[in-house]
Amino acid sequence: MTLEYNTVEQDYLTFHLFESSVSVRSKRTRRRSRVNIAVLLLVAAIYNIIIADYIAASLFTLAAALWYLLWPRYEKHFYLRHYKSAIKESYGKIFGNATTLQLTPDHISDITAGNEISSPLSGITAINEIPDYIFIKLQIGMGIIIPKTTPGIEELRTKLHEIATTFSIPYNVYDKWAWK
Q1: CATH assignment of 2-9+94-173?
Q2: Residue-wise pLDDT tens digits, 28-43
Q3: Which of 31, 83, 96, 177 has its CA 20 to 30 A from that of 12?
Q4: What distance in Å separates the CA atoms of residue 128 and residue 141, rounded to the nearest whole number?
Q5: What torsion do the CA atoms of 64, 70, 76, 82 make, to the nearest 10 degrees?
């Protein structure tokens, strides 16, 4: 089976944001950055209560609450900016080029702008489906991005389900995934 489609910057951005959102390490880092500063501000507030500086204690408590409530919004935009610049730097030359996905009985290959990713089907570690894309994660640390607007996507989805069943690969569907 062969599919041809074009990839754009948004495809790579969505892939990286998705991988970040499901990564245990990334989730833990984001949670820690939110909680640690808020706790530090609350400790400062408690210290100011002990020394009877109630105005400073109130300000530290307010700062902790604001940090805890507003940090996720800022962090979301921070990650977006970070990934956009990293993607432009790393993948800028392949945007808009035709991508060819080849699925044979024993291999999967992705060819974009002269670069080829090839792996045996047993080298697929996960297949993730979100509303607009299918992502195939490989053992070699790479991923294949397939927009759902690609002609022949239903046939590919059927074959990927068969591959997932045959090789005991997790096929995850995130119908309501959105970057948060």
Answers
A1: 2.30.29.30
A2: 988 898 999 999 999 9
A3: 31
A4: 15
A5: -60
